[in-house]
Amino acid sequence: MAAAVPIEITVKSLSESGLKSIPSCFASKNLQDLEVIDPQEGTIPIIDFPLLTSSDPQHMSKIIQDLGRACEDGDSSCTNVVEFQLINHGIPESLMKNIMDGLKGFFDLSNEEKTEFQGNHVMDHITRSVFNADSKKVHCCRDFLKCFVHSEFHFPNKPAGLRDTAFEYTGETREVTMELLKGVSESLGLEPNYFSKALDLDSGLGRFIANLYPPCPQPELTMGIHPHTDPGLLTILIENGISGLQILHNGKWFRVYAPPNALMVNIADQLEVVTNGKYKGAIHRATLYGKAMATRMSLAIAYGPCPDKVIRPASEFVNESHPPAYTALTCGEYYELHLANAYSKITALDYVRIQN
At the top level of its lineage, which domain of life is listed (predicted)? Predict the structure, then answer.
C-alpha cells in the first residue's frame, strides 16, 4: 500500500497525484464474497413511462401491474431485482447531458473553490466529500456533492450555469417521481395520491447526490460506494455512460447496464417501511471494475418525506397476519442513522426492522 496521504484531500486530487497503489484506508475486504453476474433479459424490469398516463384501460392496468412487480421482491424464485429502468420519461436528453457536464465542471474546481461548500452534518443544505486518512473507517473511492433541493432549493453557485441546470433537472425528476408514486399507489390498491397526502410530500425532502469515481490504480481492491439501501421513497439515477452499479438479489450481485437515456429507479427504505415490507428497498453498491483509468460519474435524486414526519408501517398494510415489521422513526432520524452506518455491513433499515 502507498504511504500516508494528507489529512484532508479529495479522491480526485489523490488520483491525479500519480499514485501506483491505493492507500490502505481505501482497501475493502471481501469484495468477491458473492458471485457477480450479468443479468439475463427481463431480470431488470423496464417501465415505459407514457403508459402510466395512458387513456387505454388495458395498457394502464398492465403497466400498473408491471410497476407493482418491479417493486416487490417476492421469494427466492423471483427473477426480478428490486430496481427498474424507466424509458420514454420525457426528460430531454440535452438536459441530462448538460447536468452531467456541469457536475464535471464542479468536480474540476480547485479544492479551495469547493471549500465553501463543505458541510459538517448530514442535514446541512450542501455538503461535499473530504476524508480523513487517519480515520479507521474504510473509505469509498469517490468524491460527492450532496444538496437538499426540495422543499427548498440549495445548490452551489459555481461553476456558472450549473445551479440553473440543476434547478431545471430536479424539477423534471420530481414530476417523474410523483407520477411514478401515483402508479405505485395504484399497484397497491390505493388511490393515486395516497403517498403524496399521507406523507405530505409537498413539504418532503429532495436530495441531490452527485458522485465522481476518478481513475483508480487498483479498482479490484476498493469500492466506489459500499453496499447500502437508500433513504426516501424512490431514487432516480443516471450515469455518464460508464457502468458500475450492482444490485444484490438472491445472494448474487447483478451488474446493471442502463439503456441510453433511461433512468434507473431504486426502491428506497421509506417505501419499504410504509408498505410494511410488501415493497422492498434495493441493496446496491458502486464498483470500480472495468475501465480502470476512466472517470465514472453518477447522479441520484432521492425524494421522501419531510424531516419531522414519523415513518411507520401504514395501517393499510398491518393486520393480524402482518404485524408491524418496522419501528417508527422520523425521516430526519433515519437520515442520521443512514449516515452513521455508511461504512457498515449493516444497513440503516436493519436497525428499524423488528426481528421476530
Answer: Eukaryota
